Amino acid sequence: MPYFTYILECADKTLYVGVTNNLERRLKEHNEAKSGARYTKIRRPVTLRYSESFRTYAKARKREAELKGWKREKKLDLILKNVH
Fold first, then answer.
1. What angle do CA 35, 3, 28 make, to 5 degrees?
2. How many domains is the chain partitioned into structurally?
3. 20-69 pLDDT, tens per residue?
4. Domain carrying residue 10
């Protein structure tokens, strides 16, 4: 089962980085669930802007930590370079 590191854009234009093994379900949770990430719960709706897949949870978490350490501009550059 693949794991995904993803970047969401919140309604207030802030960015959120996370990890999941089911991107579709997790996006729905961020937008609809009463539980879950407190950060996105108060900044709905959120939009998936970027994702990467990994074979292991450990690799996905490592990439998540890397992206969380980046400044906003670098994250936006990554998003823009990967728009199809």
1. 35
2. 1
3. 999 999 999 999 988 778 899 999 999 999 999 999 999 999 999 999 99
4. 3-81
CA distance 44 to 41: 6
CA distances from 80 to 13, 24, 34 (A): 15, 21, 31
User: Look-up: residue for tokens 């936006």?
Assistant: 76
Structure tokens belonging to residue 41: 């719960």
Please work out, in degrees rounded to the nearest 5, the angle formed at the alpha carbon of residue 76 by the alpha carbons of 34 and 56.
65
User: For residue 65, what are its two tokens?
Assistant: 């930590």
Strand-pairing partners, residue 5, are 19, 52
